[in-house]
Structures are given as structure tokens and as C-alpha cells.
Amino acid sequence: MIRTIGRPRTRRGLLTASGYAAGAWAAVYTAANVHWALGGTAVLGDTAHRGLPLFGPAPLAAAMGALGVVLALALVRPWGRGVPRWLLTTLGWIACVGPGAHAINGLGQEMLLDLGLLPAALRTWSTGQTALVEGFFLCGAVLFGVAVGDYLARQPQQN
After folding, report:
1. pLDDT of residue 157
2. Residues 6 or more apart from 120 whose CB is under 8 A from it?
3. Would you say 44 and 115 are in contact if contact means Cβ atoms under 8 Å apart?
4. pLDDT at position 9, please?
5. 130 φ, ψ to 5°?
6. Tell me, what's the pLDDT at 40?
7. What's residue 59's pLDDT?
8. What is the pLDDT of residue 48?
9. Count of CB atoms within 10 A of residue 159's CB?
10. How far apart are CA 25 and CA 80, in angstroms?
11. pTM over 0.70
12. In the prediction, which pLDDT does 159 show?
């Protein structure tokens, strides 16, 4: 007879970890947008958010990122059970599709620029910056998608 000490690792535990990872992703996204809203230029250089400190897309994106942190935690923490299932599911899929669409758009535009189908004047980032940023958004999409799928598998369907 084999006895396990402590809780055995399960696939369910790894899937649940995706919710925490999605929360961490949203926290990094929030921090970056707060940095840009305050006039910082890290990662993007001077090409984005210039002249928009405290006004423009960065503060709005930071607020959405903060809501993403709360959403990701609600998908895995017990207090999230008090939120209607349809609301968490809908917001979770939005949090999955949004970054995914951003990544597909950015990578598609980069591909069109590289093929010469778009004018080179539209290029604002290096290929490395595009890969870094869009890869980050793709990771967020996957993490939120897995977190929502895990949430749906754990929560009983209500009539």
C-alpha cells in the first residue's frame, strides 16, 4: 500500500494555477500601463503613448487590467462563487478574446509589413518589440482561456 503525504498533484491543480497566472499577467499589464500613463517609455520607447500621460488609452487600460486581476482571482478563489456564473464566464471570455485579438492584429500587421503589403512608414516598432508585446498578449489570452475553462469544469451548471 502506497500512502501519499500531503495533497497529491493533480491536473485540476495545474489548471487552477492558470487563474493565478492570469491574475499575475493582468497585474503586469496594469503596472505597465500605469508606468506609461505617468510618462514612462519602457518597452515601447517613444513610439507609443507620447503626450498622453494621465489622459488617453493608458489609464483606461490600467483600469481594465486591474479589473482583470479581480476577475482572474474570482475564477479561482472561493469568494468568486458569490458572483453569478454567467457574469464570470462572460467577462472571462472577453478577457481571453481581447488580448487574443490584439495579438492576432499586431502579428498580422507585422507580417503584412514584412511582406511589403503595407507601407514601411506604418512600422512603429522593431520586429523584436512586436514579438515581445504580442507574445505577451497571446500569453494573456491563453491563460484567461484556460482559467475560464477550468472554472466552468469546476462550477456546476445552474438552471
Report:
1. 74
2. 113
3. no
4. 54
5. -60, -45
6. 78
7. 86
8. 53
9. 2
10. 19
11. yes
12. 45
DSSP character string of the chain: ----SSPPP-HHHHHHHHHHHHHHHHHHHHHHHHHHHTT--TTTGGGSSTT-TTSSHHHHHHHHHHHHHHHHHHHHSGGGGGS-HHHHHHHHHHHHHHHHHHHHHHHHHHHHHHTTSS-GGG--S-HHHHHHHHHHHHHHHHHHHHHHHHHHHHSPP--
Cell numbers describing residue 136: 505577451
Looking at residue 90, its pLDDT comes to: 97
Q: Write out residues in the chain with pLDDT < 70, as ranges.
A: 1-12, 43-55, 158-159
User: Helices 57-76 and 85-114 sit at what angle, rounded to 10 degrees?
Assistant: 130
Instruction: Kindly provide the b/e burial profile for residues 59-92, where b requires at least 16 CB atoms within 10 angstroms of the residue's own CB.
Output: bebbebbbebbebbbbbbeeebeeeeeeebeebb
Is the separation of the CB atoms in 90 and 74 below 8 Å? no
Tell me which residue has cell 499586431.
Answer: 106
Cell of 127: 520586429
